[in-house]
């Protein structure tokens, strides 16, 4: 049996050299190496476009000042579209799928050059979304007055590319609006007008 020989320093150096080099690179360029690995991961498996939507009372939109969403109140629709991939979208459309007949006085549009209204729903055309970019679009609208029953205003938006092909769909968001009678509406509006004078 051959006696145990201790490995030479050269052999140990060659065995651990790749590990030492990787450690040195990681230590010296930690952020850059992490970004590099993230870029490789995104190239192999690009992130999926995401749409986050919300419906809330708009600032100053609570006509009755009761902290509830009632017919006649102004609500805010918000959409955040995030593109984590390296794909660029031009002339895309965000279709909100809001029942347009429930809303009036659409205003305070931000994050886009405009909206389209076909009488059925509201769409946001000509969206340009660069790689690794997020875009926030908001607009306000008044909930129509009605007396028959409480209404649910909802949105389940769809992001369509320039060929009108569905890229992504958001989760459905909704808000319940309580009916309000005409006498209460008129008295609330008169009271607000008197307080402002």
Question: What attributes characterize this protein structure?
Answer:
11 strands; 4-stranded antiparallel beta sheet; elongated; 25% helix
Describe the structure.
- With 197 residues, the protein is an alpha+beta fold.
- It is built from 3 helices and 11 strands, in the order H-H-E-E-E-E-E-E-E-E-E-E-E-H.
- The model has no long low-confidence stretch (mean pLDDT 80).
- The strands form 3 sheets. A 5-stranded antiparallel sheet has the order 5-6-3-9-10, with no helix packed on it.
- The N and C termini lie far apart (108 Å).
- It has a single domain, classed as Immunoglobulin-like (Sandwich), CATH 2.60.40.740.
- Helix 1 crosses helix 2.
- Strand 5 and strand 6 form a beta hairpin.
What is the gist of this entry?
The chain has helices spanning 9-28, 30-44, 182-196, and strands spanning 50-57, 74-83, 89-95, 103-110, 116-117, 122-129, 133-143, 151-155, 158-160, 166-169, 173-177.
